Amino acid sequence: MAAAAAFEPLLHQYPCTEWTRVFFFEESGQIIAGHCSAKPEEVRDLIASYQDNDTTFARGLLIEGIHYDVHRFHGDLIYGRRGDANQGEGICLYRFQKPSGTKCFALITYQFPILSAKAIPDLQAFVQANMDKF
């Protein structure tokens, strides 16, 4: 995939280096780029998370076999965490649209001292700044 090859160097720069996992995928389930070993059924479930927020709150998010509780569903953002404030990991799933109109998703996980108040705006800014590379 030419797009993935062009995108890959960006994943080794700030802010991506602050995230534990980062990957981008299309609504079809096609992986664009990233560092994550998501199973196809996990990607399918992540995409389906936007269909019903009550179910998403109840079910949470699952990536690489790790469960995360969801505590916020706001428009194109779904986020939460696992563990506690000292030994936990946050997660954010962000839905966006490529210039071509294709719906895409970005998923990141992050560990303390990185908090959602920093990680999520960084993700949104990263996606917007690199929209032409998707």
Query: Major sheet: order of its strands?
Result: 2-1-7-6-5-4-3
Which second-level CATH architecture applies?
A: 2-Layer Sandwich
Rg (C-alpha, Å):
14 Å
The helix content is 25-40%
Residue-averaged pLDDT: 89
CATH class: Alpha Beta
Low-pLDDT runs = none
CATH superfamily: Dynein light chain 2a, cytoplasmic
Question: How many discrete domains?
Answer: 1
Biggest β-sheet description? 7 strands, antiparallel
Question: What would you call the shape?
Answer: globular
User: What's the β-strand tally?
Assistant: 7
- Approximately how much beta-strand content do the residues carry? 35-45%
The name of the CATH topology is: Beta-Lactamase
Q: Given the helix and strand composition, which structural class is it?
A: alpha+beta
Question: What secondary-structure arrangement, pairings included, does this model have?
Answer:
Blueprint: H1 2-7, E1 21-26, E2 31-35, H2 40-48, H3 53-59, E3 61-63, E4 66-74, E5 77-83, E6 88-97, E7 103-111, H4 116-129
Antiparallel strand pairs: 1-2, 1-7, 3-4, 4-5, 5-6, 6-7
Pfam families: Profilin
Organism: Paratrimastix pyriformis
Protein name: Profilin
